[in-house]
Every structure is written in structure tokens, then in C-alpha cells.
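Question:
Write out your own:
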Amino acid sequence: MEQRAAEAMRTFFRDRSREVGFHQVSFTSASPPENSEHLSKWIEEGHHGTMEWMAKNISKRSDPRQYRPGTHSLVVLTANYYSSSPHENDPTIGRISRYAWGEDYHLLLGNRLRSLADEARHRFPGLSAWSTIDTAPILEKAIAAQAGLGWVGKHSNLINRSIGSWFFLGEILLDVDLAEPTEPIPDFCGSCTRCIELCPTGAIIKPYVVDSRLCISYLTIEHRGFIPRELRPLMGNHIYGCDICQDVCPWNRFARTSPLTEFQPRAGNQTPQLTELMELDEEGFRQRFRKSPIRRPKRRGFLRNVAIALGNSGDPEAIPTLTRALQDHEPLIRGHSAWALGQIGRTSAVKSLEKALAKETHHEVKEEIRLALNACTSIDEETTTFFDELNPKSPENSPRP
């Protein structure tokens, strides 16, 4: 392609992409990004958990030219989604990852990227332009790093020195070569290990390696089954995703509020009451989270997460809500509601669990109820011992004649 024609295309993509809300634009080769072989090792070690789709077509994931034959270069774009509103520490309030406070980026940015690609094809007849945003099996972060848009941090997110890590990535695959020479951005994480040290579940098993099976984001979004019991207490009030590794990153002090109002918090998404969420039926869930990424784990997965958060809250006022959830048609919701009741304890929780056990037929749920009843017994014993120690001379604790 002639240099003048190539520069005209780059100018078009730079100007139009910024006009429709993208922050940065870069152009890179379609050749496999550096360290792309790490994906195979990561999958071999089982770090992808139950995301079996990641183990398919690894060669295509590592090489955009195999995924989309005829691709010569990529337009790589970033879109800032940051909202400066803080997370809520109240344990009766659910924590939702910032990226999901507003509209689903797949829909919003996906539509804008497709329109941009359509416009490019119209502007430059004969051009093949195909867009994607977190939907194609390509190594987006490694490709963006190759394009000079940042470096992959120890938490495995891409970090940009000017805006931190609160941004989405999108790509347009082209059949012409618009790649520009770019110097790789150095790794500016230095000796900092905040993300590793402060991850509640220890999911960052070593710098730059995240074991999805331990990651709260994976557990609350991608994992479809029962969450391992030993991890549930570590999840706190996280009900969809987790931002801790980004919240503690020093580079995010440079974050700026997104100009895209669609990513600002929807009413009820930033500080949702857990008991209110637990009462959602199928239609209520669909309506509340219309055009929201929170629909991904479906109602059963989302309320599973809410039940765990209620258990971790220790709030006895949640017992009636969790008791009703023991009758839900979804075993996943019943089982985790039982666990939550076991964490809270109280006589009313025991009665609800005993009643549910008599009717339950699902084997995993029955096991959850039995374990929850045992947990209630342990809580009662610990509480009794605690008060005995506080009141050693009370009549109840005096030696009997």
C-alpha cells in the first residue's frame, strides 16, 4: 500500500474513533505478540478453570492471522470506563466491579466499532475491516502492549501510564498493513507487589500469573457451578467481579473519569442492598440488568454470589430472605443460601434448614444443608463458650450441688 493511502487510513481511524468515544488508537502488526506461548503453559497448568473454550484453537488465539486469514494489521483502541465513585464497605451492600456499573460495553462499544468498520469500508472501497471487543479469541492485552498502549502488570491487566488500567480494549482487523513502528512500553511495576499481597484469595500466584480458579472475578462471573466452600468466606460482599488489584495499583492515581456517560453508575448498581437482590425473580433480574454485563452469569449464578455475600455479612435480618431462597427452583441458589444461613446461625436459621432438609432431593443441596446445620451448631457452641467466659459466676455457670 502506498504511504499516502496508508496515512489517510490512519488519520481516518484516529479522528473518527476519538469522535465516537475511544481514548487512544494505535496500529500494530498482525504477527503473534511477544510471549504468546505463555497461554499454552497457563492452560496446561489448569489456570483457566472451567473456561474450556479457552483451551480450544490456541494457535488461533496466539496469531490473529490464523483466526482471520488475510489479516495484515490491527487498529487497537482503548475506551476509558472509570468512575470515581468509591466502593461501599457496608457488608450488607453488594460490591459490583466498576466496569459493570453502567451499560454493557460489549453492546455500546461493539456497536460503535462495527459502525467505524462499516464507515471505513465505505470510505476505502475494497478494504476488509472486521471489529471485535472482548469477543474474538485473540490475545487482546498482549496485542495492545505490542501496539505501545501499555504494559501487562503483575495483576495481568494492561496498564497505561497516563490513565492507569480502567479501560476496555477493542480491535479492528484489517487486510492492509497500517502497522507503525512502536517501542514496547517498559514494565513500570518495579518492585511493587500490592496487587499480589492484597488479593483476598491469593489468585495472583506469582507476578503476571493469575489462577482463575482462585480469582473472585472468575468465581462470580465465569464459574457456573458451586463455589468451593473454602473460598466463600474470602469473597466478602463481592457479587460480580472484583476491583481490588486495580484499586490498590499506584498507577490508577492517574485515572480520569470516563467522558462516556453510559459507563457511569446506574441507579442501584453501585450500592445494591443484598436482601433486595436476593428477592429477584427471573423477570425482575432481566429487567433490572437490561443491557448490563451482569446478565452473563444468569440469575442463578448472580443470586449464588448474593447468597454468599449475605452469609459473609453475618446479618440476622437476612434470615427470612435466605429462608425463602431455600425454596428457589435453582439448586445453585438453594445450596448457597443454605451455606449463608449456616454462617449466620441463630435458632430461626436452624429451623429453616431442618425444614428444607426434609424436603430437599438434590444431593449437593442436601450436603450443603447438612454442613450448614453443623456450622450453626458450632456457632452456638462458640457463642455459649464466649458468654460463659464473660459471666463465669452467673447462676447458669455455677457448680450444681
Observations:
- Strands lie at 24-29, 73-80, 95-96, 129-132, 151-152, 158-159, 167-174, 204-206, 209-210, 238-240.
- Confidence is low (pLDDT under 50) at residues 384-388, 393-401.
- Residues 3-36+51-84+97-174 form one domain.
- The chain has 16 helices and ten strands.
